[in-house]
Amino acid sequence: MINLEPKTSPRFFLIYKFIEIEHQALKEFMQENLKLGQIRPSQLLIEYPILFILKKNKKLRLYINYR
Q: What is the spatial distance between Cα 13 and Cα 11, in angstroms, rounded to a whole number?
């Protein structure tokens, strides 16, 4: 466990920047799954890292690392 100083909170920042095709794939995933009700907006202060894996059909697969 990491003890924080009083009146402080952990800082969060981007691990890496998306390229345009990854940004578009994420936007499409979010819009489609929000509309279907499979995901919902989060109110958490923490985020999980995501990666994109190139599939054989040249499309990107979203991978979420929950560890």
A: 7
Question: Is 18 buried (19+), middle (13-18) or exposed (0-12) by CB count in 10 A?
Answer: middle
**Cβ neighbour number for residue 9 with a 10 Å cutoff:** 8
Query: Long-range CB contacts (< 8 A, 24+ apart) of 3-11?
Result: 9/45
Kindly report, residue by residue over 30-51, the tens digit of the pLDDT: 999 999 999 888 877 777 788 8
**Tokens of residue 28, six digits:** 């499409």
What gap in Å lies between CA 60 and CA 57, rounded to an integer? 9
Tokens of 67: 């560890």
Output the pTM of the full model. Answer: 0.63
The alpha carbon of residue 56 and the mean position of all alpha carbons in its chain are separated, in whole angstroms, by: 23
